[in-house]
Design a protein that fits this description.
387 residues; alpha+beta; 7-stranded mixed β-sheet; two-stranded antiparallel ribbon; 12% strand
């Protein structure tokens, strides 16, 4: 049963396309920067590295002749903190070396799985405490999470690299002034805004909040070897108007868990009864806009004077999830995330913008209720505070 049929006289907003007017053009983007040649003979794949004081991920990658991306992918299963913070490297960790890739090749050596048994909160590189040995979760969920994170980091880096080099990045919003120009106008705009003696980058991509989400969830499916299934999902979602709720329903068919979120389930800060109503429906087992809910992250930011007790346990669980897809207000807005960091696209930003996408903690987010879809096996269970 969905909210519209329960609510009666005052229907909740339908899962729609608030942040999308047209699907983004899918174009290629420049390759990430190449890595330097190793200064020492590389080790073979499958060997281990003991992290010592002064080590960093970039130093270890150069030393052993592998890329940082490959090193992260080979170890994110054991140490999921690497998915959200590449500086989360602690003395005492034992890293697995992926097979060596040629300089400049950022193709991952293959994720080793993901564990919900270790917090993704950053650790100091000078920590002397022995890192825990978590039980590893392997399989499709791990590959999905690793692929989504890698895509997110790669595309953000590519945009900022192009912006720094030429003054023009790779992404722009479908509601930006640049998007409204014809082809000739766009070419002239690029010439007017590129740095002196530079050529505008090729492969600019128009996007939106749903376009950004589809890009990275699609990359997650590709990394998991499920490109055919993604084509089915993409066709279904775009055929029906690119609704966030439709994407969530398709992901749920593949075993993704639906996590309802709401900073104050009883007294929303904006006074809109939509948030408290959806929370009540979830508590009663009625789901969220026709989507069965598996767990909740609620009451992490109580409204002042509302009397709700703060509960951070859900946020602590979310911190351990390397990659997820999310939506707010029945799909009116969509985004992706890693840990408790929400990553959204801004549809009015120009190609010269340094922030066509931005990250912020869910705890501070201005939208006040929604759903998060996490890949199979990546939602932690048990008492996370004891880890």
């Amino acid at each position: 049963m969905n909210i519209e049929s329960i609510r009666g006289r005052r229907p909740a907003p339908r899962g729609g396309v608030w942040c999308l007017s047209r699907m983004p053009t899918r174009v290629s983007t420049p390759a990430p920067r190449t890595q330097t040649q190793p200064t020492q003979p590389p080790s073979s794949g499958g060997a281990s590295i003991d992290v010592k004081p002064g080590d960093s991920l970039s130093k270890l990658a150069r030393r052993h002749g592998v890329t940082m991306d490959a090193l992260v992918q080979a170890n994110v299963g054991r140490y999921p903190g690497l998915a959200t913070n590449r500086n989360a490297l602690a003395v005492g960790w034992v890293l697995t070396l992926p097979a060596r890739t040629p300089a400049g090749d950022t193709t991952p050596a293959g994720p080793q799985g993901w564990s919900g048994q270790q917090s993704s909160r950053p650790s100091s590189a000078t920590t002397t405490q022995q890192a825990p040995e978590p039980q590893r979760v392997r399989g499709e969920g791990a590959r999905l999470a690793a692929g989504g994170v890698q895509s997110l980091e790669r595309q953000m880096r590519a945009h900022h690299d192009a912006l720094e080099r030429t003054g023009v990045g790779l992404y722009y919003g479908d509601k930006s002034g640049f998007a409204k120009l014809d082809r000739a106008g766009q070419r002239q705009w690029l010439q007017d805004n590129v740095k002196p003696d530079q050529t505008p980058p090729t492969g600019l991509k128009e996007s939106s909040c749903i376009g950004w989400a589809l890009e990275h969830v699609g990359a997650a499916y590709a990394a998991a070897g499920k490109a055919d299934r993604w084509r089915e999902i993409y066709a279904t979602v775009t055929r029906n108007g690119a609704k966030g709720t439709d994407l969530a329903k398709e992901l749920q068919k593949d075993g993704w868990k639906a996590i309802y979120w709401n900073p104050d389930a009883k007294k929303p800060a904006d006074g809109d009864s939509e948030h408290s109503f959806s929370a009540a429906q979830v508590r009663r087992g009625n789901g969220y806009y026709g989507i069965k809910v598996d767990d909740s992250v609620v009451n992490f930011r109580p409204t002042e004077g509302g009397g709700t007790a703060q509960d951070m346990s859900g946020i602590e669980r979310l911190k351990e999830v390397p990659f997820w897809f999310g939506l707010a207000r029945g799909g009116k807005h969509t985004f992706v995330g890693r840990g408790n960091q929400l990553n959204e696209f801004h549809w009015t930003e120009q190609p010269t913008s340094s922030r066509p996408f931005s990250e912020k903690p869910l705890e501070t987010y201005s939208w006040l209720s929604g759903l998060i879809m996490v890949p199979p096996g990546t939602w932690p269970t048990g008492d996370v505070s004891a880890r």
